[in-house]
Amino acid sequence: MLNNISPKIKLAVGAVIISFSGVFVKASNVNPESASFFRCAFGAAAYLIFLIITKRFKIKCGKWMVFPAAAGIMFAADLFCWHQSIYFVGPGLSTLLGNFQVFLIALAGFILFSEKIRYQFILSCLAAFAGLFLIIRGNINSAGEFFIPGVILGLATSVFYAGYVILLKKSQHGKAHASLNMFIVSVVTAGVSLGYILSKGSLPQIETAKGLVFMLAYGLICQFAAWLLISSSLKSVKASTAGILLILQPVFSYVWDILLFGKKTGTLEAAGAIICAVAVYAGIRYSSKDRA
């Protein structure tokens, strides 16, 4: 049934679903490092069950495994840098810096996949970034004494996230199903996250039943359902288009913050959300015809 849905729609829906990531982590009260591990561990379990049920669990070691494995390492680095950046400069500025990925993914698409980039698309990216700035501008002033390290980590987040998406796209050009690639990504990311936690002399922890429920939701909904939709669409969608569609994640994260946690908002923030939505639509429309 999913095969009959437009790849762009699948990617957009996936981006909206992963926008709930902050909701699950915030509601669970699980520390960021443990949340990263449990997200990918539970997600890997879901992919494994899915692969067994659909009879796609056939791993033959080969060069194709390099891409999803490398994507898993990139994703682990992305989560680490993002969480640390949030700690140093707050969620607003870290989100803004992390979404420089839209420019890096577009550039990588031009270099690696020979994708044409129209000037209208670049303008749409700039408009989306401006809209995102308006949404989170209030949080930027909360940056503390670790401002410079936080900015560096935020920019590193965008590099690792862009690398993750590009490597995931490369992995989809092989014969392996998207779910198998994402299983490998999830296992590698969980392994790297666990190694980091153990290096600090600690263990992944979930202290309450409520935390377990939200971590299960985090893994099954965000890591499994959302990224299965996104990864299965990357083969048919330009890298630049994927990058701008993923900006829907922070936009909807802002919406959920208002609706679920009572975040106060103003006219400029609302205008920023509208600008982002229009810019994303324009970016898709003005991108040249997608190629596999």
Class inferred from helices and paired strands: mainly alpha
Largest sheet: none
Approximate helicity band: over 70%
pLDDT averaged over residues: 84
Number of helices: 12
Uncertain runs: none
Work out the strand percent: under 5%
The N- to C-terminal Cα distance equals 20 Å
Strand and helix order:
HHHHHHHHHHHH
Instruction: Note the overall shape.
Output: globular
Using the CA coordinates, give the radius of gyration: 18 Å
* Number of DSSP strand runs: 0
Structure write-up:
The mean pLDDT is 84. The chain is globular. Helix 1 crosses helix 11, helix 3 packs across helix 9 (209-234) and helix 6 (119-140) packs antiparallel against helix 12. The longest helix is centred in the first third of the chain and has 33 residues, at 66-98. It has helices spanning 7-18, 21-28, 32-53, 66-98, 101-112, 119-140, 147-171, 178-199, 209-234, 239-245, 248-261, 267-286. It is mainly α and 292 residues long.
Keywords summarizing the entry:
76% helix, 292 residues, globular, single chain
Secondary-structure topology with pairs:
Layout (H helix, E strand, L loop, with lengths): L6 H12 L2 H8 L3 H22 L12 H33 L2 H12 L6 H22 L6 H25 L6 H22 L9 H26 L4 H7 L2 H14 L5 H20 L6
Question: What is the gist of this entry?
Answer:
The protein is 76% helix and 0% strand. The protein has twelve helices and no strands.
